Amino acid sequence: MFSGQIAFESSVEPQSDLQSGSQPDSPSDSQSFYCRINDYHQLRLLRSHDAKELFTLIEANRTHLSQWLSWLPTTQTVDDTRHFIGLTQERARNNQGFAAAICYHNAIVGVIGLHDVRWEDRRSSIGYWLAKPYQGKGLMTTSCQAVIHYGFNQLNLNRLSILCASENIRSQAIPERLGFHYEGTLRDAQWLYTRFVDHKIYAMLKRQWLSLKD
Asked: Using N-to-C axis directions, what is the helix angle for 78-93 and 51-60, rounded to 10°?
């Protein structure tokens, strides 16, 4: 479980800050999501100048990612990726979540973030993907630990969920490994190019996470 060694620091790019808006339990205007997990593994908010590197990574992993992600057809150019990054920055400014680059030896190897923060219910969901060559190194598990820690301790959320396609065993292993509770399956939850796929729902409550740390 979370080791307590993950530190959150200020970002050097003000436009990517997670702003407080009117939410009392959200970060102040001066805070951003940046997590140094160790010397070779960091998480940081996506920036506009990441567009080319991120698009190149997507292109190299398009077949791998298309197994479970439906947004690939809308990402055909660097400008498409730049537009996506702009949307994530707007989401962060509006205090509705964020998207962070998973960096390994200073290269972007995937993306993780909080989607659609519901402040009235203090809940959100975690989404993630990782390039195929970097699977099996523990990067996604520790990245999820960092986002969970941030969501519960910095944002004071009460519930975090992860949805995985029922056939995506590797993705399901992440919440299961982290102690998430399986809550059920949404049948035909997503149209994935040629077929409907079911989604398994996993959830963690803040009190459960804190008890796992003890």
From this structure: 120
